[in-house]
Amino acid sequence: MGQLTQFAPFLLMFVVIYFFMIRPQQKRAKNEKEFESSLKVGDKIITKSGFHGRVAELAETTVIIETMSGKLKLERSAISMEMSAALNKKV
């Protein structure tokens, strides 16, 4: 019984760290993967570097977007979920 009470603070710290740091990060990563897989041709997007464009073509891990200056080939992970959602919410 003495050993259990000795390790209780460490267990409590791990539980707190899990629920406040690890779990939200896993949830966010899952939401970003769902967003990347739900992209379709014609969607308006903003990349994490700030490029605005429209999805022209989709591949398994890449996407080609049309911008005012031409077409760019990017990784799907380079598309910002938050900024793209805000852009589509305005319009």
From TrEMBL:
One of its GO terms (biological process) is protein transport. The chain crosses the membrane at residues 6-22. InterPro entries: Preprotein_translocase_YajC. It is a single-pass membrane protein. It comes from Flavobacterium hercynium. Keywords: Cell membrane, Membrane, Protein transport, Translocation, Transmembrane, Transmembrane helix, Transport. It comes from the Bacteria. PANTHER family: SEC TRANSLOCON ACCESSORY COMPLEX SUBUNIT YAJC (PTHR33909:SF1). SMART domains: YajC. The keyword Transmembrane applies. One of its GO terms (cellular component) is plasma membrane. This is Sec translocon accessory complex subunit YajC. It is found in: Cell membrane. The keyword Transit peptide does not apply. Belongs to the YajC family.
